[in-house]
Amino acid sequence: MVDTEKIRLEIENLIEEASSTFESCTRCGMCKSLCPVFKVLLDESVSPRGHAILLSNKILDKIVFKCTLCRACEDKCPANIKICEAILRAREALSLKEKLR
Ligand code: SF4
Ligand code: SF4
Q1: CA of 10 to the centre of ligand 1 (A)
Q2: The whole model's pTM is what?
Q3: How far apart are CA 81 and CA 40, in angstroms?
Q4: pLDDT > 70: what percent of the chain?
Q5: Which atom of ligand 2 is nearest to the CA of 71?
Q6: Is there an atom of ligand 2 within 6 Å of 73 CB?
Q7: What does the pLDDT average to over 74-97?
Q8: How far is Cα of residue 57 from the mean position of the Cα atoms in its chain?
């Protein structure tokens, strides 16, 4: 049997972790031009800065599955933000949400 409350709590914690990763993000956009997914799709929401904006506002979107986890954005981030970790937390949260359906 699925422990609904436990899963809900876990989802909340994962969203909080993903969001707090971007606390020191200045939205400078230095990461954006390095992202291979953004280079192809030319859509801000798939860029690392796009993820920063969504996740820091605790918005979960399946767009996080478009990231290749290449870490090119992290290499150049002046604030040393662990973008991929946040994306992984968001993916976990979305997967858990599926269990509640
Ligand atoms: S480079 Fe770092 S600080 Fe700048 S927008 Fe990207 S994640 Fe935020
Ligand atoms: S880790 Fe994801 S968001 Fe960062 S540059 Fe690579 S594809 Fe883009």
Answers
A1: 27
A2: 0.94
A3: 23
A4: 98
A5: 1
A6: yes
A7: 97
A8: 11
Longest dimension (CA), the chain: 46
- What are the pocket residues of ligand 1 if the criterion is a CB atom closer than 6 Å to any ligand atom? 25-31, 48-49, 52, 77, 79, 81, 83
Q: How many helices (H) does the chain have, and how many strands (E)?
A: 5, 0
CATH code of 22's domain: 1.10.1060.10
Give me the chain's average pLDDT, please.
96
The token duo for 1 is 């049997």
Q: Which domain holds residue 9?
A: 4-99
Angle at 16 between CA 10 and CA 17, to 5 degrees: 90
Based on the number of CB atoms within 10 Å of its own CB, is 56 exposed (0-12), middle (13-18) or buried (19 or more)? Answer: middle
pLDDT at 1 over 90: no
Cα 30 from chain centre: 17
